[in-house]
Amino acid sequence: MMRSLFSGVSGLKTHQTKMDVIGNNIANVNTVAFKSSSVTFSDLMSQTTQSASGPNASTGTGGVNARQIGLGVKSGAINTNISTQGSAQSTGNPFDIMITGDAFFVVNNGVDNFFTRDGSFYVDGAGNLAMTSTGYNVMGWHVDETTGKIKQDTVKKLQIMGAENMTYPPEATSKAYVSGIIDKHDTDVTSVSGKTMNLNFYDALGYSYSAKLTMKQNAEDPSLYSLELTGLLDSEGVEVDGWENVSLTGAYDSVNNILNQDNLPYIEQETIVTFNDTEYKWDGTALKLRQYDDAGNELEGEVVAEVSDGITSDEWKAIATAYGYEDDVKGFRNQYINIPQDDGNGNMVDVKFSLQKLITNLSDTGNVPKITDATITVGNQITAAGYYYDGVQITYDPDTGVFAGINGNQTVSTLNIDFSAISGNFSNVEVDFSESSMFDNKGTSTIGATSGDLEGLGTGRRLGDMIGVSIQNNGMIYASYDNGMTKLLGQIATAEFANASGLEKQGDNLYSATLNSGEFDGIGVDITGNGGYMSTGVLEMSNVDLSSEFTEMITTQRGFQANSRIITVSDTMLEELTNLKR
Predict the structure, then answer these.
(1) How many CB atoms lie within 10 A of CB 381?
(2) Phi, psi torsion values for 554, nearest 5 degrees
(3) C-alpha 314: how far from its chain's center?
(4) How far is CA 239 from CA 135, 211, 424, in A?
(5) Which whole-number Å values give the CA distances from 199 to 57, 173, 463, in the listed order?
(6) Other Cβ atoms within 10 Å of 33 Cβ, number
């Protein structure tokens, strides 16, 4: 009878333990990533009053089972339902992450690693990815500076918003391409000024510039074009000093490439040029720029540019503007006239001299005849016969209209803009013309220049500020910048265990490894290795099933009541026993 009392007591205690587990489950029904637990019972022990005996063949009697009286119940195990996925709850926070699969996040308190399914993270004041509830650092792998890829090594904290990640460095443009149609009947193409296209690019410090590339048609062969650099402007539209010295590699000798254009503006003698609020005249008889007073009298000692003197780029622009060439100073300087010269055998032959050479008295041969020489006749004007074609020769197939080479070489499709002759942080730009063509487009050309190659490489960029962070389903963290670039910052590592139910709860949604769960190797695994993945903007909720918990609560309550009845009935029986002496 005393045995039944103690059995009833053990039943009460065991059912109370189960009720404690149920109560904890229900209390955590809304806890992020909580895993419910369940209790299994086992009998405590049994008192054997008679051992079992086997059958006796000689006497013909059968065996007898053992006679055992159970002495109660105990908690056999408390299991955590860790493998069941909780439902997803959307939060909209990009740093809230849910794991689908059997893996765990790895977090660290500065000393020890812990494991959690709670993916409610944030970025702390030091730029580290951390748990919102505890501030523990989220652990992961860093980027190898040599390869630019993730190096899976011992996990470390992920400082995704450190100072080095807040900006993306600038890069100079190194490649460009020209595409579109150049129509040989386009009036811009056939004009002296040519068809201009702007190539926007960056220097090594991220400053933007615009190179003006002009294509001029050869009047004798409409399938040939001269590509010339006619300007270099900074981001504020100001010309870069010394831009005239920037060269296009492979440019032809100007003497051998001449565009014969008709009806070019003539150069009048005694034309007044205004420069720096002062009027000047080009003295056609002396090829000098002289300063005159308001009455038209020459000022002594005020010669602005002698034949042997250099003329500045600003002065050239002022002169060219006076003759209607404000937007094409180079075209003005490259106009030429035919001057009869003795070939050395007593024969007079026409020799072409550019206005630039005439004015500055410079030529490949040395002495350039002045207009006052007896060998030429000067009237009231000088009529230009054409202008030099001194750019890179771009050729198109006259039959098919497709690009046919540079400088007569059909195997070459690129040229190089060489900035080495000017100061600054420029890098040479390789320009590809293979995507351009010459077709009939109703007199309209669509040709244009774009920085970067056809695959978007070598575009260059300005300095970029971080504008966002995104986390992929494999845990890789990328930053995006306002210059269009992205950067890999690291990867969130995960841990997997042979027996995840063997992990020990440490509170705060944390677990620690035990001897029965398996050890953490300090490196972790890529979550996608076993088919898992991460989802951002959502959290895993508790996997507690209230319907099951309430059902278990009913059965536990009835079990507790039944065991209490064992005690009361046993007590009544003892009471009857004590009343026998009356």
Answers:
(1) 12
(2) -65, -50
(3) 42
(4) 55, 10, 13
(5) 110, 11, 19
(6) 22
Phi/psi at 62 (nearest 5 deg)? Answer: -90, 175
Distance (Å, rounded) from C-alpha 504 to C-alpha 500? 9
Cβ–Cβ < 8 Å for 340, 350: yes
Judge if 484 and 532 occupy the same domain: yes
Nearest to 449, CA basis, from 154, 195, 169: 195
In the DSSP assignment, the letter for residue 528 is G
Boundary of a domain, candidates 420, 451, 482: 451
CA distance 465 to 551: 57
If asked whether residues 335 and 409 sit together in one domain, one would say yes
Cα–Cα distance list, 471 to 80, 155, 219, 481, 534 (Å)? 30, 18, 59, 15, 9
pLDDT in tens, 5-14: 888 888 899 9
CA 65, distance to chain mean position in Å, is 79
Q: Which residues pair with 352 in a beta bridge?
A: 338
What local confidence, expressed as pLDDT, does residue 283 receive?
47
The residue segments making up the domain with residue 7 are: 2-57+64-83+544-581
Tell me: do 216 and 160 sit in the same domain. Answer: no
Note whether residue 459 is domain-resident.
no
- Tell me the pTM: 0.70
Same domain assignment for residues 526 and 425? no
243 vs 104: CA distance, rounded Å: 60
In a domain, 460, yes or no: no
Q: H/E/C letters for each residue in 418-485? A: ECCCCCCCCCCEEEEEEEEECCCCCCCCCCEEEECCCCCCCCCECCEEEEEEEECCCCEEEEEECCCC
- Going from the C-alpha of 173 to that of each of 287, 426, 466, the distances in angstroms are 43, 8, 21
Quick one: pLDDT band at residue 217, thresholds 50, 70, 90? Answer: confident
My answer on whether 113 and 183 are in the same domain is: no
For the chain, how many structural domains are there in total?
3
**Does position 112 have pLDDT exceeding 60, yes or no?**
yes
- Listed residues 451, 481, 516: the one ending a domain: 451
Express each pLDDT in 53-85 by its tens digit. 888 888 888 888 888 888 888 888 899 998 889
Are 139 and 108 in contact by the 8 Å Cβ rule? The answer is yes
Same domain flag for 310 and 334: yes
Q: Which helix (H) or strand (E) holds 65?
A: none
